Amino acid sequence: TIVLDYNDVAGLERTFAEIGSEIACIIVEPFAGNMNLVKPTAAFMAAMRRLCDQHGSLLIFDEVMTGFRVDLGGAQKLLGIKPDLTTLGKVIGGGMPVGAFGGRADVMDALAPTGPVYQAGTLSGNPVAVAAGLATLAAISEPDFYVRLGARTERLVKGLAAAAKDAGIAFCADSVGGMFGLYFAATPPASFAEVMQCDKEAFNRFFHAMLDRGIYLAPSAFEAGFVSAAHTDADIDATIAVAREVFKSL
């Protein structure tokens, strides 16, 4: 396993030039969420698809976070990049314990019973999780669902950024669909190194002050956040109002 920097096209090309014939696949979050929200560059996405095609490697999108949160077609639809395999998590079950993966027919045909690769799980096809998933899919397939979700999330991040600016705090925020990132930095990070340069101590103070006032955010500066259809405009406004108070106290 080789770990490369996110959004590093040169590093990706160099690695494939050196050992491309040995690389079975690239596994990547199309919008990173496990180091806070970091958006990919168009060049990075295009390079991964091009290099995988050239060397016969699979491009696997980990859409456990982004699947059905940023768009009905996932991040791959927004980015216009088609992976060979996609993994999805409990979002497809409305939060219930369930997961799924799928992709190119020739790859999926390698699974039993048509192929030699055996795959099974204790929770595979759990009827309660599947019922919740079907209800979730019906809800998110409603017209303009993602327009409303994206607008509400954008309203949150813009409100938080404005509140921080008024308090003189170095802070910014970004979002895609219902996914958002909060950064105690001047601009949104584009790499793990830039994420590490954010003021983590300031985030910790912000998190605990918000929690003390009844607003529970993800408890780490390295986690993305999510707005759901259950959140109302009143919830967003209340969160911004509390944040305005907290920023003034930092």
In short:
The protein has 250 residues and is of the alpha/beta class. It has 9 helices and 7 strands; from the N terminus they run αβαβαββαααββααβα. The protein folds into 2 domains: 9-141, Aspartate Aminotransferase, domain 2, CATH 3.40.640; 145-248, Aspartate Aminotransferase, domain 1, CATH 3.90.1150.10.
What does this structure look like?
The protein is of the alpha/beta class. The strands form 2 sheets. Strands 1-2-3-4 form a 4-stranded mixed β-sheet. The protein folds into 2 domains: 9-141, Aspartate Aminotransferase, domain 2 (3-Layer(aba) Sandwich), CATH 3.40.640; 145-248, Aspartate Aminotransferase, domain 1. Helix 1 runs parallel beside helix 2 and helix 6 runs parallel beside helix 9. The relative contact order is 0.12. 42% of the residues lie in helices and 12% in strands.
Secondary structure tally, helices: 9
- Return the CATH architecture of the largest domain: 3-Layer(aba) Sandwich
- Per CATH, the superfamily of the largest domain is Type I PLP-dependent aspartate aminotransferase-like (Major domain)
Rg of Cα set: 20 Å
The figure for the number of domains is 2
